[in-house]
Design goal:
The complex is a heterotrimer of chains A (129), B (410) and C (108).
Chain A lengths: L8 E3 H4 L4 E4 L4 E4 L2 E7 L2 E9 L1 H8 L1 H13 L6 E4 L3 E4 L3 E3 L1 H6 L3 H9 L13
Parallel strand pairs in A: 2-8
Antiparallel strand pairs in A: 2-3, 4-5, 5-6, 7-8
Chain B lengths: L1 H5 L2 H11 L2 H14 L4 H25 L3 H44 L7 H14 L2 H12 L4 H8 L4 H10 L8 H15 L3 H12 L7 H33 L6 H4 L1 H42 L13 H19 L4 H26 L3 H4 L6 H28 L4
Chain C lengths: L2 H4 L3 E3 L5 E14 L5 E11 L17 H10 L4 E4 L3 E2 L5 E3 L13
Parallel strand pairs in C: 1-6
Antiparallel strand pairs in C: 1-2, 2-3, 3-4, 5-6
The chains are: A alpha+beta (129), B mainly alpha (410), C mainly beta (108).
Chain lengths: 129, 410, 108
């Protein structure tokens, strides 16, 4: 249940940032676009994984970051999705989170494209074989 | 037995798309007609390089399930990975254009009807395969179909070449006396860069994920690498040898697909021509699929979207939108009537960015015990991997000055 | 605060020497009172080079030798700074110790 105990010291850029997040059931969630830190006892504690173009845009910065943020806003993606750290089940090396959290974390752009474009094309509901 | 045989078609299709897609087919013909067999060593070097790196990326997939662009984002961080994404995406999109143009040229050669008529139908057909045809069926059909290019190898024997002279050209390792060194170097860089073009590892590793490779599939992975890429290299060398036998002595300067198939027609007549056109059709169509899908793979893996043909399209909406939009753009570009083969030469510029930034993270992760445990790189992979990385860096630095200085190898 | 806001911030040591910028955040996994694990930030790695560490501060990231040597050389001025030695109040991070007293970057 505890994904960190055998790790001891964890370098956040190396082991968490920019890794793929999936649910225990295999649901694809997104990337760890940033981490939220909360002040506690004079230091910081990792509070949540942040997923979404807004969080990524801040890390990229510059005109490209701005463009990315604008695209995200176009799909009504505001604040990034937060995944609380206690939802993390393992690092293998994908960051695995609980199924419930994985399915609750949604992407506005994916939803929009599914409803408006891709889902309307015949055959969109069946995997190719 | 047949099932085991079919399990290596991912490697074959990847390699066909890397070594005998339309750009490489023409480049192999150009090089063979101009330098004889003096550039075989570049293809051999390219095969070695792509084998080592495809094996590393395949091992990472089998053990951890992570495809190459995941590793790039994770190790290079969001900014450098984005730079790589931009370069790789442009290369891949330009190649999609070239392949669609190549399929159109092939149909024009077979039917006599102008190629521009075929562009839109081909685009739609490629998209339909992406949308509906399963991954394994796709790689079997187009991978094995592309092997029909092997008719070049048969044709050589019927052309009765002077084998000793061909052999002498192979070991010469330098341009013929009347050819300038910078132009030779330009073609060497172009040939090497196209052998190691980044979409091959994107496609190969993502294909491994699509096929659901696990640790027990490591032998399958290795068989794909060791069979697929050398086979692709042999096909390219066969094309080169045909050009070296027929066109090199005649001093013909190759610029068109019709000239490249000429030796086969001379040797085997109409039957040979039919087979070679089927082969080129399958290879270029397969390469269009490989590059079209790769454009979606890299974007989805950079941003963490769901992707792949094993999902219903509605569950990978952004992936399918990317691939579809890329194909549409390619159709529009080719429809303007610009020379599709010339397009692939521009992609060399973007290779300078994309090649080192693709292979460095693969090499690093292949040495990471957190990922690979006991399947991490051994000495051979590391020695060749580092050597190739140095060659890639040199080629990347040299590419653009050589291109400007030689007027793209004219 | 976000990790991305901490990474890339310029840093100076007690004598005003330029240490480059924060390149990595090191946290420790500790069990909370209710048994759930928590990642507590213990320090940062500062360094002048913009080239990443690529995981070479970990002992399970090994080889190839020439690459290890290259990354080590690029990061020869990179150091680990414990959290209590950091002053984050200004726009530039102040490290309360001189460069010579700082520890290396290897993860124990």
């Amino acid at each position: 249940m505890n994904p960190w105990t055998d790790l001891g010291l964890v370098d956040l850029s190396d082991s968490l940032l920019d890794r793929q997040i999936t649910g225990e059931d295999g649901t694809v969630v997104g990337k760890v676009d940033d981490l939220e830190l909360r002040a506690e006892d004079g230091t910081y504690v990792v509070d949540a994984l942040l997923v979404g173009p807004e969080a990524l845009a801040d890390r990229i910065g510059g005109p490209i970051g701005k463009l990315l943020r604008r695209i995200g806003r176009g799909f009504r993606a505001g604040a990034p999705q937060r995944i609380p750290l206690n939802a993390v089940r393992g690092i293998e090396p994908t960051v695995v989170v609980t199924t419930a959290v994985a399915q609750a974390t949604e992407s506005p752009s994916e939803d929009w494209l599914r409803r408006r474009i891709i889902g309307r094309i015949p055959g969109a509901g069946r995997a190719s074989r | 037995m047949s099932k085991k045989f079919l399990a290596v078609t991912l490697g074959i299709l990847t390699a066909v798309g890397g070594f005998v897609d339309i750009g490489d087919l023409v480049e192999s013909g150009v090089v063979g007609a101009r330098y004889g067999m003096a550039m075989v060593w570049v293809t051999v070097l390219g095969v070695l390089g792509i084998c080592v790196y495809a094996d590393m990326s395949g091992r990472v997939v089998a053990v951890s399930g992570r495809p190459v662009f995941d590793l790039i984002r994770e190790r290079l961080g969001p900014r450098m990975a984005l730079l790589n994404l931009a370069g790789s995406f442009l290369i891949t999109l330009l190649t999609v254009c070239a392949e669609i143009g190549g399929v159109a040229i092939t149909i024009e050669l077979a039917s006599g009807v102008d190629r521009l008529v075929w562009v839109l139908p081909i685009g739609v057909l490629v998209w339909l395969v992406v949308w509906r045809v399963g991954f394994e069926r796709m790689e079997t059909g187009f991978g094995l179909g592309g092997l029909a290019i092997g008719v070049f190898a048969v044709a050589i024997f019927f052309l009765h070449p002077d084998w000793s002279s061909l052999g002498a050209q192979v070991v010469q390792l330098a341009p013929p006396a009347d050819q300038a060194l910078p132009t030779y170097a330009y073609h060497a860089v172009a040939l090497f860069a196209s052998a190691m073009t980044p979409y091959e590892v994107f496609f190969f590793s993502s294909g491994g994920v699509e096929e659901g490779w696990k640790v027990k599939d490591l032998p399958v992975q290795r068989a794909n690498v060791l069979l697929g890429f050398p086979l692709g290299g042999l096909l390219a060398i066969a094309v080169m040898a045909c050009a070296a036998t027929v066109l090199f002595p005649a001093g013909v300067d190759v610029s068109q697909v019709s000239q490249i198939v000429l030796p086969v027609t001379l040797a085997l007549g109409t039957a040979g021509l039919v087979i070679v056109l089927i082969g080129i059709f399958a290879a270029t169509f397969g390469a269009a699929l490989e590059t079209g899908l790769s454009s979606g793979y890299m974007l989805a893996q950079y941003f963490g979207w769901d992707w792949g043909k094993r999902r219903a399209p509605r569950n990978a909406a952004r992936f399918h939108l990317t691939v579809g939009a890329g194909l549409l753009l390619a159709v529009l570009v080719v429809q303007t009537g610009i020379d599709p083969v010339g397009l692939t030469e521009i992609s060399l510029i973007f290779s300078a960015v994309a090649l080192p930034l693709t292979y460095l993270p693969v090499l690093i992760v292949a040495n990471d015990r957190e990922y690979l445990g006991k399947h991490a790189n051994r000495h051979f992979s590391n020695i060749v991997g580092v050597g190739m990385l140095v060659i890639i860096a040199v080629a990347a630095v040299a590419a653009i000055p050589l291109m400007i200085f030689t007027g793209a190898g004219q | 605060m976000r990790a991305g806001e901490l990474l890339g911030r310029r840093a100076r040591d007690a004598n005003g020497r330029d240490l480059g910028a924060i390149r990595e955040i090191r946290a420790e996994a500790v069990p909370r009172s209710d048994g759930l694990p928590e990642l507590v930030v213990r320090g940062v790695i500062v360094g002048r080079t913009r080239v990443r560490l690529f995981g070479y501060q970990r002992h399970d990231q090994r080889g190839p030798a020439p690459l290890v040597a290259l990354i080590r050389r690029l990061h020869r001025h990179s150091r680990y700074v414990a959290w209590e030695d950091l002053d984050l109040s200004g726009p530039e991070v102040r490290v309360r110790r001189p460069f010579a007293e700082l520890a290396g970057i290897d993860r124990p």
